Amino acid sequence: MTIRLRAHHLLCLLTYVGKGYSPAFTANYDGIAGRLSRGEDILLVSGPDDVCAPLLDEPEPHCLNESVVERDRLAAQDVGELLARPIRIGARLDLDAATLARMRQAFSAGGVRKACDGCEWNELCRTIAAGGYSDALVQRSASPGER
Q1: Cα gap 10→100, rounded to integer Å
Q2: Exposed, middle or buried by CB within 10 Å (0-12, 13-18, 19+), for 5?
Q3: What pLDDT is attached to residue 147?
Q4: Which parts of the chain sit beneath pLDDT 70?
Q5: What is the separation, in whole angstroms, between the first and last Cα of the chain?
């Protein structure tokens, strides 16, 4: 299977520790984190994605706000520069151990954080990054070919 993610969720997954907007949201994200950790690939989508799904029944889901679309644009730009490849709608990404480590190193150094400005989770993510991501739920081990 493939996990559908909008671009700014490529940053959110780096620091996800089981906290979120609601119990349904965290249960869903816990499942996504497990799938990513097992190596499922990512398909970049526009607008609400698999992470957003539990929020779409709300009267005014923030997933549809223009500010979130701007976060996607900024994240796609930063991650694309970091990985030296276009991050655009329809692109697929394999979040192997090396890519995850590279993204986390850049996140810790502040290199891919433009999309995080003004996000309510920014301080939590900063704390998790400063702690070495030890509690983050998305974890990948290097496969024999990556070692």
Answers
A1: 10
A2: buried
A3: 46
A4: 142-147
A5: 25
Is there a contact between 33 and 13 (Cβ–Cβ < 8 Å)? Answer: yes
Place of tokens 């990513």: 36
Give me the pLDDT at residue 144, please: 55
90 dihedral zone (left: phi>0; alpha: psi -120 to 50; beta): left
Q: How many residues does the chain have?
A: 147
Strands (E), the chain: 2-5, 41-44, 92-93
Q: In this structure, what token pair is assigned to residue 63?
A: 């997933």
Q: What angle do CA 31, 26, 118 make, to 5 degrees?
A: 120
Return all residues near 32 (Cβ < 8 A) that are at least 6 apart: 3, 13, 50, 51
